[in-house]
Amino acid sequence: MSGAVVAAALLIPVAASGPAWAHGEESDESAVLVEQAVALIANSAYEDQVAERIDDSLMAPHKEGVDLAKVRKAQGLIEEPGYSAAISRQVKVLLLDSLGGKLPSAPKAGRPATGDETGTRVVLDEYRPARGISDGGDAVLLGLGAAAIGGGLWLSHRLRPPHTLRELEHRDRRHREAS
Asked: Nearest Cα to 89, choosing from 123, 66, 57?
């Protein structure tokens, strides 16, 4: 009986929760879809994903707040062969310009950001720091760290109280005599 109760208690959270969808309804506002395309570019998405979001923004029924000529120009750039990081930056700039530099998710003036609002008007590119020793400053910090560790070990040996050494020698002597 108690095993059944425990099993039921463990299954309650699984059975009671509904499905969690990572995607909701696609927006019908061009401005939101253009912002999503900018976010995809900033997160290094595939050009097909960005092109699809741009196409969706051009076909959306609500086109308020978007300069569609700049969006079409961005669409032309992304459809050209030889898509690269430079073209990606140009597309991002065109899309941001098409919104007038204001993202739809930015909070309204005078109130805090809530819900899915970002609280910013800038979409930053993904941060990818250099790995390993990339310049002289990294080498200096590595050298200073090694010197600090070495100096600490030397000082701990040099400044060890004399009674600890005697205690260690007596312990070793007693251990050898017992063997």
From this structure: 123
Helices (H), the chain: 2-16, 30-42, 47-59, 68-79, 85-98, 136-158, 162-178
Contact 64, 80 (CB under 8 A): no
Could you say which DSSP state residue 46 is in? Answer: -
Q: Reply yes or no on whether the pLDDT at 13 is more than 80.
A: no
78, 54 contact by CB (below 8 A): yes
Contact in structure between 74 and 98 (CB atoms under 8 Å): yes
Residue 65 is encoded by which pair of tokens? 């707040």
Coil, strand or helix at 62 = strand
Average pLDDT of span 56-72: 88
- DSSP states of 16-35: H-----S--PPP-BHHHHHH
Tokens of 23: 């995607």
CB 37 within 8 A of CB 60: no
Tell me the C-alpha distance between 30 and 49, whole Å: 16
Whole-model pTM above 0.70? no
Q: Of 15, 14, 16, 36, give the one whose Cα is nearest residue 27.
A: 36
pLDDT value at residue 114: 63
Rounded Cα–Cα distance for residues 149 and 91 (Å): 49
